[in-house]
Amino acid sequence: MIYLEKAIRSLTDNKVDFVIVGGVAINLHSSGYITSDLDICYSRSKENIRRLTAALAPFEPWPRGLSRELPFFFDESALRNGTKFNFETSIGDIDLLGEVKGLGDFSSLVDRTVIYEIYDSEVKLWISPV
């Protein structure tokens, strides 16, 4: 997954506080589950939203399913005004979750993570309770 490497490097280079959840987390835990997008739960602090915007802006995020003829601006304001975003980007689909239904926000998930090294970067993967 070439897009995954670019996304992970940009997020970690910009020091974004995030946890990988969903299919990529399952896949990295050695499952055969196939996914076509990267799902992350991110800290909604003002500084982290600034870093997240900087990390993803080069990949031209656009809401999946929204006509390109309608206005949308990927910026800090957009991310502050919502908690769930499903984006198509120039490197693949990325879903941003301010909170995960039934599990909570970033601060609730971060204690239930494992550190995983991928593409010379350390990332947090959410671990599902057994």
Molecular structure report:
By secondary structure, the protein is an alpha+beta fold. The protein has a single domain (2-126), classed as Beta Polymerase, domain 2. It has five helices and nine strands; from the N terminus they run H-E-H-E-H-E-H-E-E-E-E-H-E-E. It has helices at residues 2-13, 23-28, 46-56, 76-80, 106-109, and strands spanning 18-21, 37-42, 62-63, 84-89, 92-97, 99-100, 104-105, 113-118, 121-126. The strands form two sheets. Strands 3-4-5-2-1-9-8 form a seven-stranded mixed beta sheet. The chain is globular and about 40 Å long. The mean pLDDT is 87.
Write the layout of secondary structure elements.
Layout: H1 2-13, E1 18-21, H2 23-28, E2 37-42, H3 46-56, E3 62-63, H4 76-80, E4 84-89, E5 92-97, E6 99-100, E7 104-105, H5 106-109, E8 113-118, E9 121-126
Parallel strand pairs: 1-9, 2-5
Antiparallel strand pairs: 1-2, 3-4, 4-5, 6-7, 8-9
Helix pairs in contact: 1-3
Strand content: 25-35%
**Unreliable stretches, pLDDT < 50, 5 or more residues?**
none
Shape: globular
- Report helical residue fraction: 25-40%
